[in-house]
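By way of example, we now present a protein record of this kind:
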Amino acid sequence: MNTRQRGKGRSSTAIWAVSAVAVLLAGGLIGASLWSTRGGGSEAPSGGVLSDAERGAVRNAIGREDAPVTVIEYMDYA
């Protein structure tokens, strides 16, 4: 048996072991994320949390309605 055949088996085992660890880690992270979003994690602080709409926010808007605005346009006329 030459050295190429002996080394191939070990590297293949190492690749499978690293792949298995990566899959288990990814599965664990996904499971923890799902568990925490379904109420399994820490609860919201007492007193409640207001959504943006409940606080009077306008969708896709930042700042006051009457805020001064300066528009600077850069254009290449070439």
